[in-house]
Amino acid sequence: MATINTPLAAHMLSPAQYVVIDLETGDAPPDAIAAAIAAWKAPSNWKPETVEAKRVEAAEKIIEKSALLDASPILCLALKTDRMSVILNGMDASSPEIPGWWCLPCVDERGLLLALRTILDVSVGTGTVIAGHNIVGFDLPKLRNAFLRQRLKLPDALAYSFSDFTQPAFDTMRQARYFSMEHYDERYVSLDAVARVLDIPQPKQVITGADCPRLHRQGEYAVILTYCAIDVATTERAYLLMTGQAPGLE
What we know:
single chain; alpha/beta; Nucleotidyltransferase, domain 5; six-stranded mixed sheet
């Protein structure tokens, strides 16, 4: 991968200033869904009829949100630095054309993780900021779990210290409250909401991350990859604005 013919060459001599990451997940395997349903426990003071009703509700929710389980596969991952834009396709061996992006066919989740480890180990230095929207609560834990689930060594940039992150991290969702009175008390702020707060133009989209499992089942891989790339471009713009690095600021 690390040849002069790839965008990765841009960071072979100096590390990235920042790496913005976003990933999309698919449906968890049936056995993982069944295990999650079986693990659901009701409070001991609930009446039997309440327990059964809530058990059904919990099972339906777990099935509906199975893409959020630890065992759900990572379908794709978009990564943008100050010098390159890469999207890793972990769904098949295709490389759809996405303007402005290097789309790397990784075949499956394991291939995606191996490619990501190479990219991060080459492009990230100790001062590189890992940025993303809800990256602290979702993307980073999801990636670490996936590496270990696949029995792969973590990239240095994702190594975790029990006292703090060893790599600087910037979460645009967690920082949004400092840029908006309307969303100051909200724990979860969508990327679309952050884009509106910061007046970031976005391409009109008719899907969300929740649609990706369905799109994956339908074979709409290019749509998922494009959606992921757009999200990372928006997150990068938000990060640069929030940190005072965006072009055009006076």
